[in-house]
Each structure stands twice: as structure tokens, then as C-alpha cells.
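Good morning C.,

I know you're traveling, so I'll keep this short. The sequence:
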Amino acid sequence: MTDLTASEPGQDAEFGDFFALLKPRVMSLVIFTAAAGLFVAPIHVHPFLAFASILFIAIGAGASGALNMWWDADIDEVMNRTKGRPVPSGRVSPNDAKLFGLWLSVISVGMLGLTANFFAAGLLAFTIFFYAVVYSMWLKRLTPQNIVIGGAAGAFPPMIGWAVATGGVSLESVLMFGLIFIWTPPHFWSLALFMNDDYSKAGVPMLPVTHGKRETRKQILIYSILLAPVGPLLAFSSIGGPVFLTISLVLNSLFLMGAWRLFRRPEDAAQSDKYAVERRFFRLSLYYLFLHFVGLLIEASLRWTSFDMAAWPHWVG
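The C-alpha cells, ready to paste straight into the viewer:
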């Protein structure tokens, strides 16, 4: 937990420092998957309400990031990857980061309830709580299964987007959740393999720290195998189709080959190429998730275009 003189104000906090608290890169993934969940839903949402809803979901994601940076400032200070963040670098005080995150949480949840519906707002509130409390404050420092369970926080946005449009949950939104939830461990464990020294210094029990790199590569392969059927299942749901199925089969083949190559890599790789396989798999995992949701958006576009073309004669009449 952070203890970096919590009462001291940040010395030169600027707009960019508070924006950095929102974890913009993570927020961009939340925006994309939430927007996809909203767009592929069977009910049209007015563009203004859709835009406002996605904005408040993004603010909620940013609130989670700010609360995470407040709580994790002590370990962020130790890790090379995170020591330049606003709180450990002293540009924003821990207390300011906490208050910023709390206020954004209240605003985002309240405004999403008023803009869309309170079921979607409740899902957003639970997501913020899950990431900030269950993952950041509890699981992250307790167990190497932190990212397995905590990955649910990153899997909720498409469900929230779907709930904005429909007011509820369905098989389709659960499958979108499952795709991200099972994808998260191999994605983050591949990152942890080449950031292992950072996690070790900070005392974070990521799987490579507690069980070694060989076991981590084995678990990545296992989760990649478990992930393989989820995309094709989505293809046979109401939001899937042949385009998505083709994309999913290609991506899962590449992902399984990458996981197998990672599992089989020699431990005594040359220093200059030490983590090349891990880095390639990490990049592949980013494309994997992005292109799956692009496939869903393509299928939704084809459905809505077909509907519009079929209804066109009635409109002109």
C-alpha cells in the first residue's frame, strides 16, 4: 500500500499528470471493447446516448486506474516500468490520486445510470470495485493467481456496453466476457516473463516469480488451449458469422502455434535474443483480442446493412 507522504501535495501536477493516472492505454482497450459490445447488441442506441455512455464507461475505467496507482505507488516506485508514473515520481500526491479516482467513480457510475440504465451503471460500479479492491488491494500481492481472477475486471466492458443497449446480460455478452477473461492470463504472463525482474524486486507474486518461467510457459499453453474454442463458439451465436469464424480460426491457430513455440523455447537462448519469443507472443496477444472484436464489428455492420437495404423500399414508400 502507498505510504509516499500521502498528505503532501504534488509539486508540479499538470493536466497531463492527472490524465496519466487514468491509464490511457488500458482505457483505450476498455473503450474499444465496450463500444463493440454496444454496437453488436441487437438494439439500436441513439448515437448521442451511445457516445455519452462510452464516455462514462471510459471515465469509470480511468477511475479504476487512478485508484490502482494510488494504492500501488510503493511497488510502482520500485519497478523500472512504472517508477515514472505520476504518484511515485511525486508529480501527484497519493491523496490527490485517491480523491481523483473516487470522484471519477461516483461521476461515471451516476451519469451512466442517468444516460443509459442503472443495470449497466451497476456493472460499471462492480467493475471499478473489482479492479481497485479485489484485484489491486487483495489479489495482486497475495497470490500468483492474481491475474487469473483479477482479469475479470478487464472482461466486463463489452458486457457493460451490451447492457447499455439491452438493459441486461445474454449468452453473447457472457461469451465476449469469456473471450477476454481466458485471454488475460496468457497475455499478462507473457509480459511478466520479460518483466520478471521488476515483479521480483517489487515482491509481486506473479507466476514467473513464484513458480518459475518454465511453469509460466506451460500455463500459457494450457490457457491458450482453453481459449481456442471460445471464439468459434461466438461465431455460432447471434452476433457471429462466417467472417468472424474465419478470423477466429486463423487467430487461434496462430495463438496456439505461438504458445507452443514459447513453451518449447530453449532456456539457454542467446542474451541478445533472450526474450524475443515472449515479446512476439505478447504482441500477437494484442492483435488476437483486437481482431476478434473487429470481426464482431464487421458481422454487426453486415447485419445492419442487410437490414437497412431490406427495409429501404418501405422507407421510401
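Safe travels,
E.
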